């Protein structure tokens, strides 16, 4: 048996050979018993599992990875933790990864740990795949001389991919913004505004681009664009405050679309609380993501819901090889509440 230390006491860890001896089978039969889909008789598997339970044995995944060249680890890159909508996505993603026997390695992309360092770190740990979850990743990064020629397969989740050969799984932004603009136009709004978040991420989302284009198709050529710089309620409040303080009432937008619900919640607090404006009578507000707090009666935020479960399912299917690695866009759903 292997020897390890636990709490200052020496503990013996059962090995595959110990289980094989106890079950009266070969070591390779033990390995097959713990390998999903491996060929093994029900009787042999029963004996192995019974012996393993008696010896408190569990497979050594590190040793198995050396034999299979698979670590069953998936690196997940995230760079905007201020957006709480990330948490429901991460919950669903990690749940599905674990159901497949995979473990998520969460990597925080920030000023001290950029994409190149993150890629190097993930490659050194020999992860099986990399999911870039809402990160502002550029194709030029792959040209960095420090990166090897053979990187783990990469996937973009919840953003358009800007990299050739790297597939994205994303909510259909064009369809979403068409539904939003159609709804707002039918309600009689004619002076639209758009609040964008972090510049690099905003470009990848393309929501502003489609919002402006669809209004032009309706004959509305001018769309006010407000920059929030980052995705947070505080940034949304600051941005709309600056806009309202510097824009005459007669020139203000009659509907403000925010790039996500967190910006919209901050904007709503400022519009109502600090400026005393009525929503939607004086200014309507609509967000994107269907963050749970936005549905509370105090906000009543109209929004657009991304198909989170379906998006995660598709990226898992690609990682496991059950679907080909190609960009997939999925439709979401317009959620109409009191704010617009």
Automatic annotation (TrEMBL):
InterPro entries: HTH_LacI (IPR000843), LacI/GalR-like_sensor (IPR046335), Lambda_DNA-bd_dom_sf (IPR010982), Peripla_BP_I (IPR028082). It comes from the Bacteria. GO terms for molecular function: DNA-binding transcription factor activity; transcription cis-regulatory region binding. Gene3D superfamilies: 3.40.50.2300, lambda repressor-like DNA-binding domains. It holds the Pfam family LacI. The keyword Transmembrane helix does not apply. Keywords: DNA-binding, Transcription, Transcription regulation. Residues 14-68 form the HTH lacI-type domain. The keyword Transcription regulation applies. This is LacI family transcriptional regulator.
């Amino acid at each position: 048996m292997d020897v390890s230390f636990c709490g200052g006491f020496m503990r013996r860890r059962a090995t595959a050979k110990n289980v094989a001896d106890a079950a009266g089978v070969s070591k390779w039969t033990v390995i097959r018993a713990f390998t999903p889909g491996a060929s093994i008789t029900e009787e042999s598997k029963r004996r192995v599992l019974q012996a393993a339970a008696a010896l408190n044995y569990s497979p050594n995944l590190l040793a198995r990875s050396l034999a299979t060249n698979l670590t069953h680890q998936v690196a997940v890159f995230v760079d905007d933790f201020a957006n709480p909508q990330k948490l429901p996505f991460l919950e669903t993603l990690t749940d599905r990864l674990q159901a497949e026997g995979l473990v998520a390695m969460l990597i925080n992309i920030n000023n001290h740990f950029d994409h190149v360092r993150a890629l190097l770190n993930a490659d050194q740990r020999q992860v099986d795949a990399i999911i870039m979850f809402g990160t502002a990743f550029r194709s030029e990064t792959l040209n960095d001389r420090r990166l090897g020629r053979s990187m783990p397969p990469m996937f973009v989740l919840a953003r358009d991919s800007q990299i050739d050969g790297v597939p994205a799984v994303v909510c259909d932004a064009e369809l979403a913004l068409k539904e939003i603009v159609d709804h707002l136009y039918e309600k009689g709004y004619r002076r639209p505004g758009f609040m964008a978040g972090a510049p690099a991420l905003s470009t990848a989302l393309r929501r502003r681009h489609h919002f402006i284009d669809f209004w032009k198709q309706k004959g509305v050529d001018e769309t006010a664009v407000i920059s929030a710089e980052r995705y947070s309620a505080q940034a949304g409040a600051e941005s709309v405050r600056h806009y309202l303080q510097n824009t005459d009432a007669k020139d203000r937008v009659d509907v403000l679309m925010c790039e996500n619900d967190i910006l919209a919640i901050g904007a709503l607090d400022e519009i109502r609380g600090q400026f005393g404006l009525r929503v939607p009578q004086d200014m309507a507000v609509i967000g994107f993501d269907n963050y749970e707090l936005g549905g509370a009666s105090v906000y009543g935020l109209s929004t657009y819901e991304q198909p989170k479960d379906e998006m995660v399912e598709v990226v898992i299917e690609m990682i496991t090889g059950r679907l080909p690695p190609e960009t997939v866009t999925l439709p979401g759903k317009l959620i109409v509440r009191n704010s617009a």
